[in-house]
């Protein structure tokens, strides 16, 4: 059984994603483009 690999994101990266979303980029596009999970994305937006 393989272990799940957790990725660490810098605060700057998180802010960049939030800024892109606030500028009008669609949620699904950002999740797909940056290989994020929806729950992680939603947590950053909150």
Describe the structure.
By secondary structure, the protein is an all-alpha fold. The protein has one domain (11-45). Helix content is 59%, strand content 0%. It is built from 3 helices and no strands. It has helices spanning 11-22, 27-33, 38-45. The radius of gyration is 12 Å and the shape is globular. The model has no long low-confidence stretch (mean pLDDT 93).
Task: Jot down its keywords.
46 residues, mainly alpha, 3 helices, globular
CA-CA gap between termini? 34 Å
Radius of gyration: 12 Å
List the total number of helices: 3
Number of strands: 0
- Tell me the major beta sheet: none
Walk me through the topology:
Blueprint: H1 11-22, H2 27-33, H3 38-45
């Amino acid at each position: 059984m393989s272990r799940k690999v957790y990725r660490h994101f810098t605060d700057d990266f998180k802010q960049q994603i939030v800024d892109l979303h606030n500028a009008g980029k669609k949620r699904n596009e950002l999740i797909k483009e940056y290989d994020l999970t929806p729950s992680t994305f939603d947590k950053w937006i909150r």
